[in-house]
Design a protein that fits this description.
The structure is a single chain. The chain is mainly beta and 65 residues long. The protein has a domain at 23-56. Helix content is 9%, strand content 32%.
Length: 65
């Protein structure tokens, strides 16, 4: 399952930018905080990878007996 987003383009007299929105449900599931720094990497022409600059420790999952 995935989440579809649209690319937004903003053109200003001094610059132009492209924006992608991160759905709130994903940000909450990943515990992404306002102001947190993330980095885009290009894997190939069809794949972008978003990574934290300061990785969090993985959560330990409890297994039900």
């Amino acid at each position: 399952m995935g989440y579809i987003v649209k690319v937004q383009k903003v053109e200003r007299p001094t610059n132009r930018s492209f924006y992608l929105n991160l759905p709130a449900v994903l940000a909450e599931a990943l515990n992404i905080q306002k102001g947190e720094q993330l980095q885009w990497s290009i894997e190939d022409k069809n794949t972008l990878v978003l990574s934290r600059l300061n990785p969090q420790k993985p959560r330990r999952l409890r297994l039900n007996p």
